[in-house]
Design brief:
The chain is mainly alpha-helical and 273 residues long. It is 74% helix and 0% strand. It has 16 helices and no strands. The protein has helices spanning 2-15, 27-32, 34-49, 53-66, 71-83, 87-100, 105-117, 121-134, 139-152, 155-168, 173-185, 189-200, 207-220, 223-230, 236-250, 255-263. α13 packs across α15. It starts with a helix and ends in a 10-residue tail after the last helix. Mean pLDDT is 85; it is low at 1-24 and 265-273.
């Protein structure tokens, strides 16, 4: 329950001497008093960590009401909108930030991620491409472009970008997972299994990676392997529902639906999933 957690965190701050006077959240005070601004930002950051996004957004907006050119606060606000599941609002914030800092990679990364969340692969690709012009070795931009191209169905070019990213970060589990998903969406299930199997049982693996491997086996028709791996992290009814889902996908000829199921609802907080 994030709101309760946030409340407990704020109470703890009060007992530790970090309580803010009632007037400190007034927009004029936050503009004029640097100490009040820093205390407010600390509370906003804690609110974000605990999932109380509305409280954080309210603080950021009060600060920006008196100084709309506050770049660090604009960035925080854009990131918080993304975490809160409000990508359209994030687009507006990151566009404002990009106008202030056109040579900074952060705004175009934010715009790329927001457009991924809105399932606008062409726009996302343009922003991530701009990021790579600023920083050619930025793995978030390279992998983000890969996701955008996978969304659009250009799996071959997507894999080229994942490969470029892996040249910078060869052991990055997120990029390796994205590369495997690219094979999965293209219907190359054996290649997806080959790419996922070495990742699924390493000490740094995750349930997401294991379930991606289960899906690859399921889509390839190996239901025994899919069931065995699915049950490592899922209860029996959920695993059975997933197996039924894999059967339904195998009957589909249009892979665009699979792309939406894999990428549309599951765009991660970072583009490297």
């Amino acid at each position: 329950m994030p709101y309760r957690l946030s409340l407990l965190v704020l109470i703890a701050m009060m007992f530790s001497g970090c309580a803010m006077p009632q007037g400190d959240l007034d927009a004029q005070t936050l503009f004029e008093d640097k100490a009040a601004r820093e205390r407010a930002l600390k509370i906003a950051d804690i609110s974000v960590e605990s999932g109380n996004f509305p409280a954080a957004i309210d603080i950021y907006q009060k600060i920006l009401a008196k100084n709309r050119f506050d770049e660090p606060v604009l960035y925080r606000l854009g990131e918080t909108y993304l975490k809160a599941g409000a990508p359209q609002e994030a687009v507006t914030v990151f566009e404002n930030l990009e106008a202030l800092t056109p040579e900074d990679v952060k705004p175009c990364l934010g715009l790329g991620r927001a457009n991924l969340s809105l399932y606008r692969p062409e726009s996302a690709d343009l922003y991530f491409a701009k990021c790579t012009e600023i920083d050619g070795e930025n793995i978030e931009a390279l992998s983000g472009r890969g996701i955008a191209l996978d969304m659009a169905g250009d799996h071959k070019k997507a894999r080229e970008l994942y490969t470029r990213a892996l040249m910078v970060a060869p052991d990055d589990m997120g990029i390796l997972n994205n590369l495997a998903l690219s094979y999965l969406m293209a219907g190359e299930y054996d290649a997806a299994i080959k790419a996922l199997a070495p990742l699924a049982f390493t000490p740094t693996s995750t349930a997401v990676i294991r379930q991606n491997l289960a899906m690859a086996y399921g889509l390839a028709g190996d239901e025994a392997a899919a069931a065995r791996i699915a049950r490592l992290d899922l209860d029996h009814p959920t695993a059975e529902n997933n197996l039924k889902f894999y059967r339904q996908i195998r009957r589909m000829e249009d892979t665009s639906l699979l792309r939406r199921l894999l990428l549309g609802p599951r765009i991660p907080e970072e583009t490297v999933s």
